Amino acid sequence: MEFAQRIDWASAGWEGLAPNVGRVRLPDLDCTSGLVVGEEAALLIDTGSSLREGARLRADARALLGAHRRVTHVALTHPHFDHVLGTAAFAGVEVYGAVGIDALFERGAEGLRADAVRHGVDPDAAIEAVDILVTPRHRVCGEWTLDLGGLTVLLANIGPAHSGHDLAVLVPGGPGGPEIVFCGDLVEESGEPQAGPDAAPHHWPAALDRLLDLGGEDAVYVPGHGSTVNAQFVRAQRATLATRFGVS
Q1: Using 50, 70 and 90 to split pLDDT, how confident is the model at 5?
Q2: For residue range 113-168, what is the model confidence (pLDDT) as tens digits?
Q3: Which end of the chain has fewer CB atoms within 10 angstroms, the N or the C?
Q4: DSSP code of 64?
């Protein structure tokens, strides 16, 4: 799609993946957040590990989009603290997550706080973020298409795998450009994939097969942590996980 005004991703310290798609690696935990811009709406993917990071993302989006546009939708790729605790910085947006994430937030807020503190988030900041934790209003079971105005994005529930509630975001390629798949922590580039107590390791390789089906051979795959990767990297990580967990 073409835009009347080009987005200068680099001006805010973001990496442009396409004219209307960018991402940033947040400094505290190297967590990726993405922004997808349509003619009528803008989708933020993941909101960081604290309200401070959420406020930084809000300010970045304002600078990138200009005074007359704002983030209207948020997609949470999974319910771990470093991807969700900044959501309250985006008042009034439509928030999406995999089905079941709402119940998890209701019963597991203390676990989110404890994980955040264990990974270095200031205890008071963690309490504040958890106290106003935003529960997704829209729960994705299967697939959900989201019209941003001239651009239709696909949200796909492909968990459980890395967590109990994994959501991938597929952005179609523009003229001559590749499709872009935001993977959350289903794929990690800057370290080994982490399998915590809520992981479903025996389903994880199949989830990566689904990612590859969605994006295809020429897609850009955006991990939850680290640099963007290609299909070959995703296949290699799938093979590593299959061996690690003893599944085919």
Answers
A1: low
A2: 999 999 999 999 999 999 999 999 999 999 999 999 999 999 999 999 999 999 99
A3: C
A4: H
Cβ-proximal residues to 133 (8 Å cutoff; 6+ apart), any chain: 84, 85, 87, 88, 105, 109, 112
Rounded Cα distance, 43 and 136, in Å:
14
Token digits for 43?
């989708």
| Interacting residues of 224 by C-beta distance below 8 A, sequence separation 6+ | 31, 32, 46, 77, 78, 83, 183, 184, 185, 186, 187, 188
Q: Is 145 exposed, middle or buried (0-12, 13-18, 19+ CB in 10 A)?
A: exposed
**63 burial class (0-12, 13-18, 19+ CB within 10 angstroms)?**
middle
Q: Is the peptide bond before 193 cis (omega within 30 degrees of 0)?
A: no
Which neighbouring-strand residues pair with 181? 170, 221
Q: What is the mean pLDDT of residues 59-77?
A: 94
Tokens of 189: 């580039």
Question: Which residue from 1, 15, 4 is spatially nearest to 152, judged by alpha carbons?
Answer: 1
Q: Are the C-beta atoms of 76 and 165 separated by less than 8 Å? A: no
